[in-house]
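Please check this one:

***
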Amino acid sequence: MKIIVLILISHLLLIQAQDAEDIKGYMYVFAQEWPGSICKFQKCTKTYMGNYDNARWNNHGLWPNTMLATSCGFISNCRDETYDENKLTVATKTLIDVTWNGMYSDTFTFRKHEWEKHGTCHPDNLTQNGYMSKVGNLNNQYNYYKILASAGIYPDNNRELTDTEFRAPFTKTLGISTAMTYTCQKDSNTGKFYIAELRTCFTQAMKPRTCDCSKPVSAFVNCGKTFYYPTFQLSTEEQIQLEEIPDLSIGFLE
């Protein structure tokens, strides 16, 4: 009986130690952008879309955030290591040419920024190839397009969405309703909100965790009561005028 009790106590202590490690470790914010919305407000081109297949969201980045006290603070520019695509394998280049493109700006410059600002801060001290392939593979593992499609939510210029229905498939996938947050862009002419970026949050062990930090998840959402998930068109004659919305994503910087 004593042996069983000791085993149970040891097991509980191990769980508490793992939880404590998660709390003191890092939180990763994995961000993807929806081209259908981004390209309504920016002039996206074939040159900057790479081999994007219109069956996923485009990577923005994977951002390590410290978890000190109850606030998450981004860390940046941790190692002085210039981005060099010659250090990437053919497989990694092929992967990120589908999952991680500039859309409306130079793709190399975009990836360079993400590596030098955030990739150099990865606590596992990943190589450039390791970091870029990790982010590319996360896009396949957490394909936001497929997650939404599993709930019957597809790009539609006329369908209004609410937070409840938009969040539900991610809750099912991640197991935690607050493990995702998102932001919108607003058409200043019509007042309509368009889902622009969606972020999922993970512990250092890459387990889904709440994104709330020092604020509730709802505080990071700026999409009004309803919003749109529009179809993607590579180019338009005239971009919609964007209304600036205050950035509420403190701690989730790009």
Notes: Helices lie at 2-24, 35-41, 46-49, 90-99, 107-117, 128-141, 144-149, 163-174.
